[in-house]
Amino acid sequence: MARIALVTGGSRGIGAAISKKLKSQGFEVAATYAGNDEAAAKFTEETGIKTYKWNVASYEESAEGIAKVEADLGPIDTVVANAGITRDAPFHKMTPEQWHQVVDTNLTGVFNTVHPIWPGMRERKFGRVIVISSINGQKGQFAQVNYAATKAGDLGIVKSLAQEGARAGITANAICPGYIATDMVMAVPEKVRESIIAQIPTGRLGEPEEIANCVAFLASDEAAFLNGSTISANGGQFFV
Ligand code: CAA
């Protein structure tokens, strides 16, 4: 029987590449999105992957949405917490609203996504939790006090879940993408983007598929002994 995977923010950017890759590996995939109905409908039409709309920042919406996915497809055994946003500003200009928006989505959103799925994984004695963190959670980033804090926090979630889930056959791992060619990075001013690319030894932005390949490995049976780890896929920009 096909494994069931949930990918949050799974209809655009890195998430879309992850959804497609997992489908190609034989998973039954549900992709969530927050707002862009048109992009989601187009994605479903092109890929045949079901999309579900909810805000990961809301626990109630997440729990309700997850229950619907499980009613439609079956128990989720692979969850990819990928949904994330930026609200970049130098710290002296960052507003409490910008702080809370990013924390609610990128950090609390991971709790909201994994928590309703976790009891079922424990009961069935199998699970794969994969969280998409960021290079900027490892190294910090100018104008990203909010984002870097959440992405570092995501690594804390993964390392703790790894210890709690191990005996129940659940692994939890993180991927820290570097700068990947998505809308999020394209929104950075061109001059800044050029200076970022100059810091990447590989000399280019990463491709969403290069992150999706890491997810496919972590989701596979072959990765059973990887638990609590962080895969840094950043073209050599930063070593931990
Ligand atoms: N390092 C040092 N100084 C920097 C800097 C940097 N990385 N980026 C900007 N600055 C400087 C500017 O040169 C400017 O200096 P001056 O005042 O001397 O001219 C100052 O900081 C910025 O001041 P501004 O008033 O112009 O700032 P602003 O309010 O207009 O904000 C910004 C501009 C939001 C910082 C914009 O430059 C920006 O978006 N920077 C990119 C931040 C970034 O890298 N975000 C990552 C997004 S991708 C992502 O997050 C995905 C992932 O996981 C990797």
TrEMBL record:
It comes from the Bacteria. GO terms for cellular component: cytoplasm. One of its GO terms (biological process) is monocarboxylic acid metabolic process. Gene3D superfamilies: NAD(P)-binding Rossmann-like Domain (3.40.50.720). Its EC number is 1.1.1.100. One of its GO terms (molecular function) is 3-oxoacyl-[acyl-carrier-protein] reductase (NADPH) activity. Keywords: Oxidoreductase. It is an enzyme of class 1 (oxidoreductase). Belongs to the short-chain dehydrogenases/reductases (SDR) family. This is 3-oxoacyl-[acyl-carrier-protein] reductase FabG.
